[in-house]
Amino acid sequence: MILLIGYGNRLRRDDGLGPALLDLAGARFAAPDLCTFELQQLVPELAAELAAPGVTAALFLDAGPADAASPPGTVTVSQLLPRVDGSPLGHQLAPEELLTVARALYGATPAAWLVTVAGADFGYGGELSAAVRSGLDEALAVVGTLLTTIRGEAPATARSAGSRPG
């Protein structure tokens, strides 16, 4: 099972990139091994889904900040490892922190990647900026490539050792 997790707020313009990309990717790549989640933010309760038996990978989809190196519309993909930046007990977590919670509570984490598109406008509104809309096709292609790779090379060793509590 591959988890496709789009997160962000659809009412904060480019922050809605994660859910918008999830809509597109879920429709284009729908398959029995793909499970989609739309969230406004990553919450600790998602750790059980990440650590569930049979989950081989998770793709997190989100908007990111633009900067000189990544102007609005830039697509970035990075492989994730469990990591704690702050308190893992908060109500909102980074993907790496969520992986840490999954490992700590359930003894397992799937291979995980984060796909972002640098945003230009995080104000109030329901539409993505033109810059982010221009990055959607590339982001969708990146998701497709990752799904193909994951399905073809299921990383059996990506799950950490451990057992789920009974």
Automatic annotation (TrEMBL):
InterPro entries attached to this UniProt entry: Pept_HybD-like_dom_sf (IPR023430), Peptidase_A31 (IPR000671)
What Gene3D superfamilies does the annotation carry?
Answer: HybD-like
What superkingdom heads the lineage? Bacteria
PANTHER family xref list: HYDROGENASE 1 MATURATION PROTEASE (PTHR30302), SLR1876 PROTEIN (PTHR30302:SF5)
What name does UniProt use for this protein?
Hydrogenase
Origin species: Geotalea uraniireducens
The gene designation is hoxP
